[in-house]
Amino acid sequence: MIDSGCDRLAKRSERPSIWALQVAVVLLILWAALDGFENLGFGLLFALLGATAGAWLAPSHVYPWRPLRLFEFALYFARASFLGGLDVAARALHPALPVAPCLRDIPLRLPPGLPRTLFVGVVSLLPGTLSARLDVAREVLTVHALTPASLDGLDDLERRVARLFSLPDPECGR
Q: How many CB atoms lie within 10 A of CB 110?
């Protein structure tokens, strides 16, 4: 039997230790990128302190993420932001200003916590879309868009966030 990805359950870590280790590595890399390697001992200390504080403040269930998938997501985000920015600039400079603002309710299929928070935040960072209202009770995000076509990439964004956190494809829940 072929595993389509829809049959797998979301993996959640009961212990935030793996997550804390991942955060410490990312913080140490950021330290080295910003400060160099001369004070790497201090960087390691503060990376461990930051990761420990984050693990302590994080909810009891954290979603594991994979560093290569984070890099893949960052590339996607940079590309989508650039292309979306070009589209918004072209619309703004066009004499007819071709916009057709709209509001659309998007059902939230990602689980609460970091995956959903990242999705809602990134929607607002992509040009042409804005997270206008989050209805937690109905599990719906109202998105404002410059044009209805601006909403076309939200399913792809949701799939990419799910992949980042090793969650099943949100399309499987439909």
A: 23
The pTM score is 0.73
CA pair distance 83, 168, nearest whole angstrom:
27
SS (H, E, C) 12-44: CECCCHHHHHHHHHHHHHHHHHHHCCCCHHHHH
| Predicted confidence pLDDT, tens digits, the chain (174 residues) | 344 445 444 444 456 777 788 788 888 988 998 998 889 999 999 999 998 888 787 665 667 777 789 899 999 999 998 988 898 899 899 999 899 999 999 999 999 888 898 999 999 888 899 999 999 999 999 999 999 999 999 999 999 999 998 888 887 755
The DSSP secondary-structure symbol of 60 reads S
**Is 62 in contact with 114 (CB distance < 8 Å)?**
yes
Q: Is residue 113 within 8 Å of residue 164, measured between CB atoms?
A: no
67-93 vs 114-125: helix crossing angle, rounded to 10? 30
Q: Which two tokens stand for residue 34?
A: 């910003």
- At 139, the amino acid letter reads E
